[in-house]
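Researcher: Here's the sequence for the chain we discussed earlier.
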Amino acid sequence: MTDNRQSTGPEDQLSFDHAVIVVPDLETAILNFQTLGFQVQRGGVSGPTHNALIYFRDGTYIELITPIRRSARIVFRGLHAAGLLGLIARRQRGIMARFLMWFGTPAGLRDWCVRCVSLDRTIERLRELGIETSDAKNFSRKRPDGQVAKWRLAGPLNTHLPFLIEDVSPTQIRVPFEGHCDHPNGVTGISALVLSGERQLASIQILQRLVSGNVMAGSACTIGTVAIRSVAGNNSPVGLALELSSNAEVKGPLARDKTFGAQITIS
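Model: Thanks. This is the structure I predict for it:
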């Protein structure tokens, strides 16, 4: 049998960066997740949005994000309900179109991100696989302490696949993990991201090829230390769920009225 896997180098290295939970109000979200036993840090302001971050020892994190202005959230929801937000997103075909959809749809676990050593190389590999991908775009965020984090983003136009990030400033400026990873609930990291929906298997196979250069048996792959797997039931709506690892005794699903509907389980 011919081995058709492509050779990979350091520039091909990928890791799970973070999961995105869109929230209706940042202050409420911070309080909710603190009540659930997480240490939550304010991330700062990026354009019309602000966020808070939950860092883990395994180098992953959860982002809680929302537009700063309540009026903007109302406008996004209205445009989505009228079908106009999807139209705008399809016409833009860039990474910003993906983010527009975050704020028009209901709150909850809406997306996930993979960190690249070389964003340009990863874009090239996706396009070699026949995946339409936006060009890279520069972003920045001013932290509460005044430091400015800078990074580049791109993403497949197929939003069932993760978007991509490459740090321009040192990663620890964007995500200052040190001293912020000790959670009262004992959570140490993200162990798995679970995909559901009719396109889940195709998404897994694309990720397998991106990570290893080949499609493997089974409906799972690993990015960094995080397992990416699908659940049975092709007729289920497209969605995401998180499984978190913990060194404490408390296990089980988190209250979804506190997570804005996001399905998160501590195991």
